[in-house]
Amino acid sequence: MTRVKAISLLSGGLDSILATELIRRQGIEVIAFNVKTPFGIPKKDGTSEAAQAAEQLKVPLKVVAVDYDYLRMLRKPKHGYGKNLNPCVDCKIFILKQAKKYAREIGAEFLFTGEVLGERPMSQHGDM
Predict the structure, then answer these.
(1) What are the backbone angles phi and psi of residue 100, rounded to the nearest 5°?
(2) Does residue 126 lie in a domain region?
(3) For 47-99, what is each residue's pLDDT tens digit?
(4) Are 87 and 77 in contact (CB under 8 A)?
(5) Which three-class secondary structure state does DSSP give residue 33?
(6) Reported pTM
(7) Which of 2, 21, 35, 88 is the most buried (most CB within 10 A)?
(8) Burial of 124: CB neighbours in 10 Å, binned 0-12, 13-18, 19+
């Protein structure tokens, strides 16, 4: 019997940590996925929030560096800039596409985030 496999878009924040643990506790094999952009700030010990969270959760972590492609997307975001020059919609699409590509490579059935409807970034959607 094959175990279901899923990709967690793990930022290292509380929401993605909780989502990862919730899925893992259901017996699903979880592989954490994180996109390293030119704007990431490593912790003092050189690790990232995502790396520390993956270690704590005891799940493997795949980190993809996307410097050039990410900067190119930021220069001309397809959906325009959000409030305060914030291209979050395009950033999310970019990250989800990277995760989808990796999910296909490893045969994952689905991917998930820790995002909660109605929470940040509030500037990126209309009134609810």
Answers:
(1) -60, -45
(2) no
(3) 788 999 999 999 999 998 887 777 777 777 777 766 665 657 778 888 899 99
(4) yes
(5) strand
(6) 0.80
(7) 35
(8) middle
User: From the CB of residue 6, how many other CB atoms can be counted at a distance below 10 Å?
Assistant: 19
With respect to residue 12, please indicate whether it lies within any of the assigned structural domains. yes
pLDDT digits (tens, 9 = 90+) for 1-22: 668 999 999 999 999 999 999 9
Contact 123, 86 (CB under 8 A): yes
Contact 79, 87 (CB under 8 A): yes
Q: Nearest to residue 21, comparing CAs of 53, 50, 48, 62? A: 53
User: What range defines the domain where residue 56 resides?
Assistant: 5-116
In the three-class reduction of DSSP (H, G, I as helix; E, B as strand; rest coil), residue 69 is classed as helix
48: number of Cβ within 10 Å: 19
